[in-house]
Every structure is written in C-alpha cells, then in structure tokens.
Design a protein that fits this description.
The structure is a single chain. The chain has four helices and 43 strands. It is mainly beta and about 425 residues long. Mean pLDDT is about 85; it is low at about 1-40 and about 400-415. It has a 16-stranded mixed β-sheet with strand order 1-2-3-5-8-11-14-17-20-23-26-29-32-35-38-41. A 14-stranded mixed β-sheet has the order 7-10-13-16-19-22-25-28-31-34-37-40-43-42, with no helix packed on it. A 13-stranded parallel β-sheet has the order 4-6-9-12-15-18-21-24-27-30-33-36-39, with no helix packed on it.
C-alpha cells in the first residue's frame, strides 16, 4: 500500500471520501450510503456514473477500495463508462473483485493515449462480466499473484490480458477475445496459469502469445485447454516457455499456423485443427516436443511440420484431406524424432516428407495419397555439405513397396507413390 493510502486508512474512510470529493463535482453527503455498503463479503462500492471523474465513478471506487482494510467489491451498475484518463491501479492485496451487475457493462478506452485499462498490481484480484473495448494498450496489465478473469469480452484492444513475468496463479476462463492484436500474452512461465473455455477470434497477431528470449527449464507449464481459436493470424505462438495445449478447437487460423512452437517444453495433445489454415502445428528448434492424439482436417499445407526439433514425438494423430501430412526437416544427428501410429488419409500431395533428417517412422499409415506416401530428400545448399535423409522404417503401411529414385542426384528418394 502506498503512503497516501496508509494515511487515508489512518484517518478513516470518511476523510478519504472528503479528499476524493475535491477532484469530483460537489455532492451531498446523503449520496455516500448509496455508493458504499459494508457487505458480508467486505466493502461494496457501487459504480453508478458513466463519467470519467466524479462521484459514483469507477475511478472513485478504485481509490476507495485501495484504502480498504479487507476484501472489497466494485459493482458496476451503469451500462457504459467512457474513460478519458488512466485509472488508478488495483492495489488492495486483501482482494478486489470488479463485477458488472447486470453483466455486460462496457468500458470504452478509445480516448486513452497509453497505458492499460486495469493495472493489477495487488494480489487476489478478479474481474467478471465486463466488456472492455478499444484499448490502445492492454485491457488488463497483470503484475501480481492470484488473478481471475471470467465471463468478460475484450474487443479491439492491442492486448487483452498482458501477464508480466512476476505474475503467478492466473485463471482466465470463459472470456471472449475478439479483433485484438493479441488476446492473452505471457512474458514468462506463470505458476499455475490456466487459460480455459475462452474464444479467440480475429487476432491480428495471435490468440495466445507466450514467448521469452531464453528457455527457463523446470518452470511449471502454462495450461491452455478447451478454448476456441477462430480466424486468427496464429492461434497459439509459444517460444521457450513450457506449455500444454490440449483439447482446443482451431479453425481457419492463417496465414501462420494453428500452433507455432519455438524452443523446448511444448505438449500439444487432443486438439482439433481444421479450416483453410496454411499449417496445423509448426515446431522449430523444439527439443522434445510432444504432438499426440490430434485431429487435422482440410488444411491447405502441412498438418505437422518439424524443423530441427530433436527427440520430437509425433504419435497417434489423424490427418484427413490436408495438403501434406507430416514433415521432418533438418534434424539433429543422434537425436532423431519419432512418428508412430499416425494415420494420414488422402493428402493432396505427400503423406510424409523427410528432408535432410533421419527420423524413426513406426506403424504409420498413409492411405490414398495423391503424391507419395513417403517422400525422402537429401538437403543440399550452395557452399554447404549435403545432409543425408535416412529415415528408419518399421512396420508402416504405405500401400506400396516400390522405391523410386528422383532424377536429381541430391533430391533423394521417393517411396510409395499413390494411385
């Protein structure tokens, strides 16, 4: 708590309200009971004014709850608030809950020139039932522990929720992020961070972005589950942050990919990926990435592409009607990736591409390919040594057993051309 807030507590709440009245329009003291109520769950402050400054405003309510000695609730009862200047931060570490009653109160931040709508610096904060629009920066800047965002719409903002490196214990559930640049952004692993049941629509950058410059081994994974990603430039972009992406629905996320992973620490499990997206999952330098039990349907390019991703595991995926199935590109000698028990049905081109890599391919099926079931190419570039492609084949069903050698001497081998 800052020095001003401690002084306010010491002299009592009435004095604080008197000081706040100086920056607002004059009001009669009889208005105070309508705005502030000591409820069973702590202090309740009602927001009844749509104005930016003055009595009954959201700004006044945040000043009041910052000085509270216990949990405080801000109840927004006006249907729309237009902000013109930055709000004070959420400071009360005992807990601040901001809720719309009825749900759907809109906070329009278009007039702000910078800064977040809500700057959450105190622990135990939650927001529910709001509509946050037109934010020039973040709708929510999170820099503390124990945060919950629920049943809120964040629309046309630069970033929906910006989670700083010092934040932890984050739950973001059942929200709608639409037409933002980035829906949710993590700057680092956040202990027990869960993103679940949300819709990410039309993000110009990515629905969810979790990227840091260097890997941080041993940190708990961010859990992204049961969300809907639709028509974003990219669904999820993760780099050097441990992340579990499971049971999500990705539809038409292009031109990047449904999931783009760089660096170690990603598990991609049980997702459904469809639409005209260019790629399903792209993994680059992703040591030990696990991609299993996913469904890929009608993608225009690769369902799964791995580039320089040693010890990768691609298992039990189903790829139907995509441009290509799986690609292994330029792996690391001695640490092969493995593709096992995958089913690829009617790819427009090749089922499995191996380019300058030597993965283990075990018990995979490629059915009715329009190109080759398995397409193997050595990699050669001017001034560089040729990288041989030598996949290990065990018990695959490629519907043919012939070997065809391409005319280009470094282009390698093409196995099992489909009918």
């Amino acid at each position: 708590m800052n020095k001003g807030a401690r002084i306010a507590v010491a002299f009592g709440l009435p004095l604080l309200l008197g000081l706040l009245a100086v920056i607002g329009r004059p009001r009669h003291s009889s208005e105070i009971p309508k705005l502030i109520v000591a409820g069973p769950a702590g202090l309740n402050v009602n927001v009844t004014s749509p104005d930016d400054i003055g009595p009954g405003t959201l700004r006044e309510a945040l000043f009041v709850v910052a000085a509270a000695n216990g949990q405080a609730n801000v109840v927004i009862k006006t249907p729309r608030i237009v902000l013109r200047t930055a709000l004070p931060p959420l400071l009360n570490s005992h807990g601040v809950r901001i809720v719309s009653d009825p749900p759907g109160a809109e906070i329009d931040a278009q007039a702000l020139t910078s800064g977040p709508v809500f700057d959450v610096t105190g622990a135990n904060a939650s927001l529910a039932g709001l509509v946050l629009r037109n934010c020039p920066a973040a709708a929510v800047q999170l820099r503390s522990a124990h945060f919950h965002l629920q049943s809120t719409t964040v629309e046309s903002c630069d970033v929906g929720v910006d989670v700083a490196a010092n934040a932890s214990d984050v739950l973001i559930e059942n929200n709608r992020f639409a037409n933002d640049r980035i829906g949710v952004r993590f700057a680092a692993p956040s202990g027990t961070a869960v993103v679940t049941g949300n819709s990410f629509i039309g993000a110009r950058g990515a629905g969810l972005w979790a990227v840091r410059a260097a890997a941080d081994a041993g940190s708990p994974a961010i859990n992204v589950r049961q969300n809907h990603f639709t028509a974003n430039h990219a669904g999820v972009v993760a780099g050097n942050i441990a992340i579990v992406i499971e049971r999500n629905d990705f539809t038409a996320n292009a031109p990047d990919a449904a999931v783009h992973v760089v660096g170690a620490g990603a598990v991609i499990h049980g997702n459904h990926v469809s639409g005209a997206a260019t790629m399903g999952v792209v993994a680059e330098n992703a040591r030990g990435v696990s991609i299993d039990d996913n469904d890929f349907n009608q993608l225009s390019a690769y369902a799964i592409m791995l580039r320089d991703s040693p010890d990768a595991l691609v298992r039990g995926n189903r790829v139907i009607g995509c441009g290509y199935g799986i690609a292994f590109v330029l792996g690391e000698a001695g640490h092969p990736g493995t593709a096992t028990d995958n089913t690829i049905v009617e790819p427009a081109y090749h089922g499995i591409d191996v380019i300058g890599d030597s993965p283990i391919l075990r018990h995979n099926q490629v059915l009715r390919p329009h190109g080759y079931a398995l397409h193997v190419l050595d990699f050669s570039a001017a001034g560089r040594q040729t990288v041989r492609a030598q996949p290990v084949l065990e018990g695959n069903n490629f519907r043919a057993d012939t070997l065809q050698v391409a005319s280009d001497p470094v282009a390698g081998k093409e196995l099992a051309r489909g009918e």
